[in-house]
Amino acid sequence: MIKDKNRIQELMELDKKHFLHPTSPIKQQQDEGPSFIFTEGKGVHLQDMAGNTVIDGMSSLWNVNVGHGREELGKVAMEQMSKLAFSSCFATFSNEPAIRLAAKLAEIAPGDLSATFFTSGGSEANDTAYKLARHYWILKGQPNRRKIISRTKSYHGVAMGATNATGLKPFREFTNSFDPDFCYADHFSTQDLREVIEAEGPESIAAFIAEPVQGAGGLHVAPDGYFQEVRSICDEYGILFITDEVITGFGRTGKYFGIEHYGVVPDMMCFAKGVTSGYAQLGGVMISEKIHKDFTELSTGTLLHGYTYSGHPMACAVGLKNIDIIEQENLIKNAEVMGNEMLKGFKWIQGERRIVGKVKGLGLMGGIEIVKDQQTNERFQTSIAPMIVTEAAKRGLICRSVVFDSQDTLVFSPPLTINKEEMARLLEILNDAIAAIEAQVLK
Ligand code: PMP
Fold it and tell me: Does CATH place domain 35-66+330-441 in 1.20.120.610?
């Protein structure tokens, strides 16, 4: 025990000194060190070095869809690494896991999305989509179509293009990223999209990108008819429609891909996270058969875009096995059923607590807005959701808060494997944590 304590202390100090954490409050990390040093995971649970067990109510970063501790994925990774850890996919080189995963994706993706460009994650997938869209228009003889329209409250990652497309302003301000070729339409208004297109000039626009359900921006489910109208506006102006399914893909919303809820097919689709459930770093962009055909017929030279790890054999082998698990265990159906259970639970909490405003979700993506007054939806002066996140973590539940754009929202995305008892426990801890903070702030 003493030995463990010393080891934790040592790691705390090394973390503070040497580990610059992604998306982190740097001062707090320096003052307090890491809050959890995780060592193990099983199903929906994570365990840390100090022996605490918590429910991973976020699937870590919306990505561990099949849950933690899947030995079968470890086995596939080991076998592939032992046989062929890496070989290039540049030019005409290839490998079997990448080929088979690309073929499997074509089988499960909506409509005629049929060819995949692989990346190592979601940000690279987004940058790739913008670059492919621009290149497409060069090939089509319309090189002025360079602009990318995205939505307010969107999150598309942190590569340069993805940062510029991200509608949450603090991410752009952080690095002074205000590329004039990126513009933003209100996340719920197709009228605004039309106005942005008209104001920028339709002939200057390459693509419009949207998350089927906005995650990191505060859990926003589009209004009825929104995406159908988006599809027809994009067709009307000849703009490519890209969906960012980095969170919403691979069963998260109760369908294979989030856009399927709306019955429309994008021209390109970005994915990452759930493709391997985080067991390996993988993402990609799928393009429609039509775009693929145009690329093939109109291209005169080399496709000058490629990451060293595009088509990584081990990552693709893990992806294939992960999709197999999702299908074998009916996890997409479970996401729908447990998603309904989660939303029902949120509504129950809303009835129990005075600081819970709107509750929302689709499948296993859920959100709870915190308000000072349930009747008027008035917000507190300071953000309360982060206090609830801290309280919930102490009580054994990891969730996340979103405070951008004056929001005060809790968000959730537990593993698709979650069962009834685990969901009940998640909701119970959540209600207790909200009650504890409510007692403090409504004193
Ligand atoms: N798009 C969306 C919708 C995301 O939620 C994220 C990550 N949370 C990304 C892109 C970026 O993916 P990555 O962090 O793998 O680069």
Answer: no
